[in-house]
Structures are given as C-alpha cells and as structure tokens.
C-alpha cells in the first residue's frame, strides 16, 4: 500500500500537467480561429441627477471645562538583586571514544 501512494501522486501530477497543455493549445487555437467581434452601438446615457445641497446645522458652543490636575507619580524603590553564582567551565573536554566497527 505504501508503494502505491507515490505512483498515484505521480500519475495525478502527470495527468494535470498534460491536461493543462491541451487546454492551453485549445485556447490558443480558438483565439486564432475566432473571427473579430463586431463593435456594438453606443448607447446614450441619461444625465446624472444633481446632488441637493444639505443645510449646515449650527451647534451651540460647548461650555469650557477645566482639566483636573494629574496626581503625583509615586516613587518606586528598585530592589537590589543578589549576585549570580559563577560557573566554572572546564578548560578541556573529555575526548569520546567510538567502539570499533565490525564487518
């Protein structure tokens, strides 16, 4: 069953690519053989209606409002962090050994 799936996918890809070639050739043949389309008569369109003018509304002025004062920002204390532990990196790493290959 597993060996059937690549064959199916390959056959679908080949069928689609070959059918698209035939469609392209058929479209090109139709474009070359179809006679020119006659021009259509021009139709006179009615004039557009005029846009009515909308009266502008007069709004009363807004009462003046005083902006309230902003509260004072609190001061934050920055905590002191403990020192990070130091890590010792070895200067030389052990050399791994691979077991011999037996044939």
Topology:
Blueprint: H1 4-33
Structural features, described:
- The chain is flat, with a radius of gyration of 42 Å.
- The protein is mainly alpha-helical and 103 residues long.
- The protein contains one helix and no strands.
- The relative contact order is 0.03.
Core attributes:
103 residues; mainly alpha; 0% strand
Give the radius of gyration. 42 Å
Rounded average pLDDT: 83
Spans of at least 5 consecutive residues whose pLDDT stays below 50 are none
The N- and C-terminal alpha carbons lie at a distance of 34 Å
Strand content: under 5%
The counted number of beta strands is 0
Largest sheet: none
The assigned structural class equals mainly alpha
Q: Percent of residues in helical segments?
A: 25-40%
Helix and strand sequence: H
Q: Total number of helical segments?
A: 1
**Overall body shape:** flat
What's this, in brief?
With 103 residues, this protein is mostly helical.
């Amino acid at each position: 069953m597993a060996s059937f799936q690549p064959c199916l996918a390959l056959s679908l890809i080949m069928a689609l690519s070959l059918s698209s070639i035939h469609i392209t050739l058929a479209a090109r043949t139709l474009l070359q053989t179809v006679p020119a389309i006659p021009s259509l008569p021009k139709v006179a369109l009615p004039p557009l209606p005029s846009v009515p003018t909308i009266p502008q509304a007069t709004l009363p002025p807004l009462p003046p409002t005083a902006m309230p004062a902003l509260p004072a920002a609190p001061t934050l204390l920055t905590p002191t962090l403990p020192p990070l532990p130091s890590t010792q990196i070895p200067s030389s790493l052990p050399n791994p050994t691979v077991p011999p290959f037996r044939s």
